[in-house]
Write a structure and sequence with these properties.
223 residues; TIM Barrel; globular
């Protein structure tokens, strides 16, 4: 599969989350996307460390944890997952402490990653790219599902792809926000490697999850 699919568990039905995770395993997916929110960095609360640990224990899939929190250092010890090497994204908007957070993630056995919000110039990622395994580009404002992709999002993905080539580094480029089939095609063409799959392509109202997953996998394989 050229484009990797990371189902967004923020959009899942928590009553059947284990069955959903096993469905993703059977279909060859590699990643599970967790959105951690503290109600401060973003105006929402979602998916705390306890849930991340419980779901991660159900599966061999790699946790892909997006920390939308003001103080990630308070939560990192709880995300030291036995037998796992989770991808953990911290936001570049946190400023000077991001480099220390990246070191802390790696020291506890995680795979450091960095996320960037739409209002922040892509160039802000430049000094961090050699130190991370993934860069997450938000195509919507972080904090809520179901938003429309913001203007300029595709160009930001292409700018990041060009920057990684120029620096001779190759972190995965992940995109989150309004990942419709039409937008996924544009995101992939611009350089995206991983698509966070939420309500726009996977957890679609009125479509059974297994059918939606089959359609999404087939589409991703065609790109």
């Amino acid at each position: 599969m050229k484009i990797r699919i990371a189902p967004s568990l923020m959009c899942s039905d928590f009553r059947s989350i284990e069955a959903e995770v096993k469905l993703f395993e059977r279909n060859g997916l590699e990643l599970l996307h967790f959105d951690m929110m503290d109600g401060h960095f973003v105006p929402n609360l979602m998916l705390g460390p306890g849930l991340v640990k419980a779901v991660s224990a159900m599966t061999s899939l790699t946790p892909d944890i997006h920390m939308m929190v003001e103080n990630p250092e308070h939560f990192l010890p709880a995300l030291e997952l036995a037998g796992k090497r989770p991808l953990i994204s911290v936001h570049v908007e946190l400023g000077r402490k991001v480099e220390g957070l990246i070191r802390a993630i790696r020291a506890q056995g995680g795979r450091p990653a960095v996320a960037i919000s739409p209002q922040t110039p892509i160039q802000a990622l430049a000094p961090l790219l050699p130190t991370v395994e993934l860069a997450l580009v938000m195509a919507v404002r972080p904090g809520h599902a179901g938003q429309e992709m913001l203007p300029g999002a595709i160009e930001r993905i292409a700018e990041l792809k060009e920057m990684t080539a120029r620096f001779g580094v190759s972190p995965l480029i992940e995109v989150d926000g309004n990942t419709t089939f039409e937008n996924i095609r544009k995101m992939a063409a611009a350089g995206a490697d991983v698509i966070v799959a939420g309500t726009s392509c996977l957890y679609r109202k009125g479509v059974p999850l297994e059918a939606a997953l089959d359609e999404l996998i087939g589409f991703a394989a065609s790109l």
